[in-house]
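During the second year of the project, the team shifted from modelling isolated chains to modelling whole assemblies. The rationale, set out in the original proposal, was that interfaces cannot be judged from single-chain predictions alone. As a representative example for this report, we include one of the complexes processed in the last quarter. Its constituent sequences, exactly as entered into the pipeline, are reproduced here:
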Amino acid sequence: MTAITPIDRLINASWVVPIIPENCVLQNHSIALQGQEIIDILPTNEAQQRYRPNHSHDLDNHVLMPGLINAHGHAAMTLFRGLADDYPLMTWLQNYIWPAEQQWVDEEFVKDGTELAIAEMLRSGTTCFSDMYFFPNQAAEAAHQAGIRAQIAFPVFDVPSAWGRDANDYIHKGLQLRDDFKHNQYVEIAFGPHAPYTIADPALERVAMLSAELDSVVQMHLHETAHEVHDALDQNNESPLERLHRFGLLTPRMQCVHMTSLNDTDIALLQETGAHIIHCPQSNLKLASGFCEVQKLSQAGINIALGTDGAASNNSLDLFAEMRTAALLAKAVANDATALPDHQALRMATIHGARAMGLQDKIGSLEVNKQADIIAVDLSDIESQPVYDPVSQLAYTACAHQVKEVWIGGQHVLQDRQPLHLNMSELCEKATQWGQKIAAK
Amino acid sequence: MTAITPIDRLINASWVVPIIPENCVLQNHSIALQGQEIIDILPTNEAQQRYRPNHSHDLDNHVLMPGLINAHGHAAMTLFRGLADDYPLMTWLQNYIWPAEQQWVDEEFVKDGTELAIAEMLRSGTTCFSDMYFFPNQAAEAAHQAGIRAQIAFPVFDVPSAWGRDANDYIHKGLQLRDDFKHNQYVEIAFGPHAPYTIADPALERVAMLSAELDSVVQMHLHETAHEVHDALDQNNESPLERLHRFGLLTPRMQCVHMTSLNDTDIALLQETGAHIIHCPQSNLKLASGFCEVQKLSQAGINIALGTDGAASNNSLDLFAEMRTAALLAKAVANDATALPDHQALRMATIHGARAMGLQDKIGSLEVNKQADIIAVDLSDIESQPVYDPVSQLAYTACAHQVKEVWIGGQHVLQDRQPLHLNMSELCEKATQWGQKIAAK
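Output from the structure prediction step:
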């Protein structure tokens, strides 16, 4: 008989979908946690003999899976949710979003908006999010306070905003932020040059040089529309992707967000360089930006992660809904119902996101020695019956509100749908106040 | 001072979206009910002076809107939810669904499956559904018992099934069912010839003749894939739609389900005849069936309603999710972000469905003298904040679980998310048992 080992936490569930190994579902298994890490995954009957946990959770009819990774968004823009719908990208930006940002965005707006977004993300199973917005110091601090993992890409533009004067100023402030958070285990600071059409060559060159020197991730909106690509070809005879390659920006540190309108040269560039794609299907549909050819790109060996984009163009931060849209849309776009099957959709929302962020050794799957970023999804309601395959349920049926428990780095951050480190009534009240102020303008 | 009128029920809410008049949102309004009908819609402060209700509901932060109309589905197939994902239409039908149906479908299966589906539909705000499946007598009876409105289209095939031997037998039994339910105010019996490729000319001719004689609605899967249309053109040199027209089936009584791959002749036929389209975007995406050109067809003046299709190819019966997919997808397909705006998406899920069923004078909008089919959607959770426009929330953000209360014909059928005429634990238990039996085969 083996000795009983004391541990911090044991989570027992009807199913565990670890993501790695691939296409695997474990029935009646348990996950043992010590400190921030997963130390064992084993059948529940063995776990109960082997471990004496300080905290124990019995989650019948629940699936445990790695926390979802939302690889692209603008959290604070949640305060603009539903402010302007049914407009094309440039009309939406120029006539609605940019003027609203000019009028309203400040430190407080970003703090309140990011906290609202974090609450929504935790309640829909996201345990790590990427963000690109003004006052990234506020977003980084909000993530830190809430106990959620984040990649904060500080924005770089050539034009001024409330947060910066010019590209050098944005970069200067961003590097300062990077310094402030260099010892934080949960918050990574990345470069966020906004888009090819808002940043000229000198700034882009500087981002390329600094990110290489610092071995830092870069995230950029890229090939969002055919219009953007055509304009670039007209003006400079090179695609936005080719332009980035000219500056050495296409590397495994590069996250290319959107990526519709790719020709074979573009695809070859992605293959050769190991740059990642962040696919945002609902935002692409809503703004009629174009279709990302997920199956073709995936078959070319390119890593594709998933993002909700901001709630102003989605209009939610629900990565389960995004995963479902991605899986459904990929089939129609490829004209092949076998494209992007359920297990692959889950990988896009987890380990692929981790790879894009360079965090694949820490998060994105449930494996021994990885961080304990775990969500529990309840499959007991009638909307989930019958359960032939919990992975089908997660990809094609599950809704955000089925996420009942969330742990990040071993810490319980969502309990029975209540975020433990956020004041929900205060958040709601502040959002209402912002909404009234902005609507009354 | 006016006299105070006693009434059955008064529902007070922060917002009322009546659908007719179009593009209208009423703030702090109330709906007064007497018997099965709406007798008044007015500001809450006036309502409280004018009416003394037997039952009163104060729904702060809720929107009242007409119950959703799910215009195409196969309710009992909910028992096959997630049984076979990620296959093309014909593989899915021939290798998975038809064999499973042959093995399992009987009176009990249809009763249990339809009740499960009705529970899910009520809990997601559907108050009227169309169904096409074997043993339609069971579906009709289940709808009647649950107090939900239904159009039961009895299936007609040339091939035998557990329910019928041949087309004549299906039609005979269907007409008997029609007779049984002729005095039922909530259940309409319609003709459901399955699809052009499963029914030959003689049966189609008989359906055409009988449906015209009886002034009865006909629902049929049509132009579901390019493959179906190409095959028909190859074999008979006419599109499936042209074939139906040859038999006089294209009339305002005809509901054409799916309708991808339409040429200009097809569109002109729909315009001339007043036949309706039932759009099922999630099923079309999942089976890679093709894209329905919603904006083009809508601009041509064709009435387009919305359906979830069966949960075996969706995999839910959530019409809010379907509405959102329809609105997002229409923009991308039309390459126009202004296509299918939020108010129009709501109309598709309500009054357009009523029109397709010939019920536009009874349901599909909140108007005085119409049936009181009303749902209350809660916008108080943080996922809905801030609320600039409740219609944007309903179209782009709302989830099924925000539906809190449902009335059908003035009867309260869902109270705080609990269906009042269904035994939920028994339903869940039966679904689990079916799932275990079918999975073990």
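Chain A has two domains: 5-66+372-409, 68-357. The longest strand of chain A covers residues 51-66.
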